[in-house]
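Handout, section B. The chain below has 224 residues.
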Amino acid sequence: ACIEMKGGRGVIQGNSFSERTPQIVLDSGVRSAIVTGNMCPSGVKVDNRIGSKAQIALNSPGLPDAMTAEQRKNYVVDVGSSHDGTFLTGFNPGDEAAEFRTGGTKRWSGKDCRITLPVNKNTRYTVTFSIFVPEPAWEEGCGMLLDGRLALPVKKAGENNVYCVVDSGSREELAFTPRFRYWSPRETYGSADGRTLGIALREIKVVSDPENRLFSANIMDYME
């Protein structure tokens, strides 16, 4: 996070943030907070742990709120490209996806990361993740959690396309959590990179009607 309040009362106003999310964290010890007038190209994301004691308004909106019900039927997120940070919490900045055969861009997961995907209510979706799992990150029982349960088990290290079918029910978003072994390039390979990493995430597809066109959440337009 760029700004983290741990206690007391405060106003967070008039800041311009990068794509890394969440930009603002309000810890449980905060007594009250006002978050207003902040900007980010992909929307300001606030990790609010104090509920109604926070007043959050007039910040740059995230793309999920801007997507229509029609657009939420079928869409793709090109991870590491513009505006993807709206859907991701706790991921590292985007870089080249050299680990993937198709190339493009990616982000490495970090600790306490989360993927939040907007959906329509009472709709059946197929959710697909294009991921790369380094050997140090793989272990038995790893994969993607949905509502705390293992929804997408990953059976091997390397490049994987994993998917699950989910009925949204009354939900308007699906929250996935990667569960893999954390590792450090410095400790594992002796590199200068001291980050704590998990897996590389390349692409997310959320599809309810395969016969219909696919919406790009990065450029906010339909793909050819």
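Note. The helical segments are 63-66, 185-189. Compare this with the example in section A.
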